[in-house]
Write a structure and sequence with these properties.
It is built from 7 helices and 19 strands. The chain has about 325 residues and is of the alpha/beta class. Strands 8-9-10-15-17-16 form a 6-stranded mixed β-sheet, covered by helices on one side. It has a 5-stranded mixed β-sheet with strand order 7-2-1-18-19, with no helix packed on it. A 4-stranded mixed β-sheet has the order 5-4-3-6, with helices on both faces. Strand 9 (about 175-180), helix 6 and strand 10 form a beta-alpha-beta unit. Helix 1 packs parallel to helix 4 (about 105-130), helix 4 packs parallel to helix 5 (about 150-155) and helix 6 packs parallel to helix 7. The protein is globular, with a radius of gyration of 20 Å.
């Protein structure tokens, strides 16, 4: 048996195809020599970009403050690919449908839901195709932004595992429990718990572990005031507060998660959720990681860490 278990973690890929392909390529090429891959939540994107049929074989689209006009065939495919690479969803449509979607919020919401689920389905199929026979354990967890249909799509896979609600045996010594929710946010996202409920749920799941001090916790939201949860402070209009030209920043992580980690002291906890707060920190004996996220820019951020029988042997941040 190997002297340690090597894990790679990342988070908040938000439907960005380019970053996800980088992850699969790194696994296929054994770039990090990882035996376990952990995606710590938020798989889906934020917007649909309509590609509008103008007639005469021409299509128009606007995204990232730029207007595009393309012809059918290869140019259209390239435009759709570029939109997908940054984590948006291309939708080839007509002027009439665009107007209909603008006036029918329910129809727009259902289209967005379908796009989210389809993209995750594509990701699952791609992982099965490229690395399904690699022997690498591949855990893909939804996050607070993700529709429930995402869970159903991952559950269909014989390779990719959604670890939420399971006690995962990583190797002879190490187990993992996972949580996809966030603490309350200003956006009232699909998966949120109160701080007390979060604490109680982590405690209850930890009771299933053989040895919590050898365990990995994969929790989408980072612990409060850990240095992994610092984000811009928002005003009542959800705009960043600025003083003397500087954006004010505050901790936004979960007090319930912090309390649970302080009491239980797992070996490692991995997190995401707060894109702008990458790093690692200690809460007692527990080492906590947040890789941060720049997936829409095509950058894949992650941490590699090695688990010995009773301790964290080493850890280093990687980016590509």
């Amino acid at each position: 048996m190997a002297k340690y278990l090597r894990c790679y973690m990342c988070s908040d890929l938000h439907a960005a195809n380019r970053a996800y392909r980088k992850l699969l390529n790194a696994v296929k090429l054994n770039q990090y020599e990882a035996q376990v891959i952990l995606i710590a939540g938020d798989l889906t994107g934020k917007a649909i970009v309509p590609i509008i049929d103008q007639g005469n074989g021409r299509y128009a689209a606007a995204f990232l403050n730029q207007d595009y006009m393309v012809e059918t065939g290869e140019e259209l495919q390239k435009l759709a690919s570029n939109i997908s690479d940054i984590g948006y969803y291309p939708h080839v449509t007509t002027p009439d449908e665009v107007e209909e979607l603008r006036n029918d919020a329910a129809k727009m919401s259902e289209l967005f839901r379908q796009k989210m689920i389809e993209r995750v389905g594509e990701w699952v199929a791609l992982a099965e195709e490229r690395i399904g026979k690699s022997g690498v354990q591949f855990y893909m967890m939804p996050g607070n932004d993700d529709d429930r249909g995402v869970d159903e799509m991952i559950a269909q896979s014989s390779y990719v595992v959604n670890p939420v609600g399971k006690t995962i045996q990583l190797n002879e010594y190490h187990e993992m429990i996972s949580f996809d929710y966030a603490n309350p946010t200003p956006w009232h996202t699909p998966r949120e718990w109160s701080e007390d409920e979060y604490y109680e749920r982590v405690k209850a799941a930890a009771a299933t572990l053989q040895d919590v001090q050898r365990a990995v916790f994969m929790i989408h939201v980072p612990p409060y005031d850990s240095g992994l949860d610092t984000a811009p402070e928002l005003d009542k209009n959800l705009r960043p507060r600025v003083t003397m030209g500087d954006v004010l920043r505050i901790p936004v992580g979960s007090t319930g998660v912090r309390r649970a980690i302080q009491e239980l002291q797992p070996l490692v906890s991995v997190h995401g959720h707060v894109h702008e707060a990458p790093g690692q920190s200690k809460i007692g004996r527990t080492t906590c990681f947040n890789a941060g996220s720049e997936a829409p820019q095509g950058i894949l951020r992650g941490f590699v860490f090695d688990l010995g029988k009773d301790k964290l042997e080493r850890a280093f941040r990687v980016q590509g």
